[in-house]
Amino acid sequence: MEIHLGIGEDQRGRIAEGLSRLLADTYTLYLQTHNFHWNVTGPQFNTLHLMFEGQYTELALAVDLIAERIRSLGFPAPGTYASFSKLASVQEVDGVPAAKEMIAILLKGQETVVRTARSLFPEVDAVNDEASADLLTQRMQVHEKNAWMLRSLLE
User: Fold this and answer.
1) CA 88 remoteness from chain centre
2) DSSP classification of residue 141
3) Which residues contact residue 155 at a Cβ distance below 8 angstroms, ignoring those fewer than 6 apart?
4) In whole angstroms, what separates CA 46 from the centre of its chain?
5) pLDDT one-digit tens code per residue, 104-119
6) How far apart are the C-alpha atoms of 117 and 138, rounded to whole Å?
7) Taking the domains of the chain in order of start, what are their residue ranges?
8) Average pLDDT, the chain
9) 4-21 pLDDT, tens per residue?
10) d(C-alpha 155, C-alpha 152), whole Å
11) Of 39, 63, 87, 148, which is the most exposed, with the fewest CB atoms less than 10 Å away?
12) pTM, rounded to two decimals
């Protein structure tokens, strides 16, 4: 069935491709944050355990919003580890790093997601896709705030 949203199929496709990269980054960061929540140790255990839980819970909700926006544009959302690994800019980490390294890794991941979201604005703005722009703005606000909080722990 044809889609009549006021945005052409080619433009919707390019936006969906960008959102798929954002989805992959978000899911990869979710998994990493959840892993660190489970495995953090040390004197900051309680603080970090709770902080990581809040962040991964928010990320779990975000992946659904991003995937649903891709579907709203008329394209399938990626949903496998294989597809995410091809699309993601957030780097996975092997093993269980020390707590301070976990913070630095998650900070880098948060900042990566911000850059991925920001990179989509030219395509979104060119076709007045306010729904995608709103989603991107909200995602950037969350990730910038998380990055600030993580950065504060490293000072």
Assistant:
1) 9
2) H
3) none
4) 24
5) 999 999 999 999 999 9
6) 10
7) 9-154
8) 96
9) 888 999 999 999 999 999
10) 5
11) 148
12) 0.96
Rounded Cα distance, 59 and 91, in Å: 16
In terms of DSSP H, where are the helices of 40-129?
A: 45-72, 81-87, 99-119, 121-126
Provide the 8-state DSSP code for 7: S
Contact in structure between 15 and 75 (CB atoms under 8 Å): no
Phi/psi for 43 (5° steps) reads -65, -25
What fold, for 9-154? Ferritin (1.20.1260)
Q: How confident is the model at residue 41 (pLDDT cuts 50, 70, 90)?
A: very high
Whole-angstrom distance between the N-terminal and C-terminal Cα of the chain?
Answer: 54
Give the model confidence (pLDDT) of 54-70 as tens digits.
999 999 999 999 999 99
Nearest to 147 by CA among 76, 51, 7, 41: 51
**70's tokens:** 């891709």
What is the residue whose two structure tokens read 């995608």? 132
117's tokens: 């979201």
Whether residue 29 is predicted with pLDDT greater than 90 in this model: the reply is yes
Instruction: Give the CB-side neighbour count of residue 65, counting CA atoms within 13 A.
Output: 16
Both tokens of 47, joined, read 């603080």
**What DSSP designation does 91 have?**
P
